[in-house]
Specification:
A three-stranded antiparallel beta sheet has the order 2-1-3, with helices on one face. The protein is built from five helices and three strands, in the order H-H-H-H-E-E-H-E. Helix 2 packs antiparallel against helix 3. By secondary structure, the protein is mainly alpha-helical. The termini are far apart.
Length: 129
């Protein structure tokens, strides 16, 4: 079973590496939304709460997916995670930036601009939300 999961993970990583940054982010967002729907349906059917081994495993897989995607897109400040969980994939339209230069983050393009701005500013920046 471990060999099968390792093969699936390897194939997934290879697929991500062939995508551009925008496609990677969209894939992560789509995966997150599908996970949300799946967990909602499981909760309706079986009355699960959001704790326990099942949920822990699902959230660990999503966390691994986010970390992998963040590495591939060069996100060193966890903006992708913020974008998905706190900014609700851009729906909230929160502003974020560096050194007080805030921009509304409503789309994947805005997110990529934010990530790229962090690379330009490098270690001397203060992340602002």
């Amino acid at each position: 079973m471990l060999v099968e999961w390792t093969a699936v993970l390897w194939i997934y990583i290879m697929q991500l590496k062939l995508m551009n940054k925008k496609e990677i982010i969209q894939k992560v967002i789509d995966s997150h939304k599908k996970r949300e729907e799946l967990l909602d349906k499981f909760q309706e059917l079986f009355g699960f709460s959001d704790d326990g081994a099942f949920y822990d495993t699902i959230f660990q897989l999503e966390d691994l997916n986010l970390k992998l995607a963040s590495q591939l897109i060069g996100d060193e400040c966890e903006w992708l995670e913020w974008y998905i969980y706190e900014n609700k994939c851009g729906e909230n339209g929160y502003e974020a930036g560096y050194e007080g230069n805030l921009i509304p983050i409503k789309s994947i393009d805005n997110l990529l601009e934010l990530i790229d701005n962090g690379k330009v500013n490098n270690d001397n920046t203060k992340r602002n939300i």
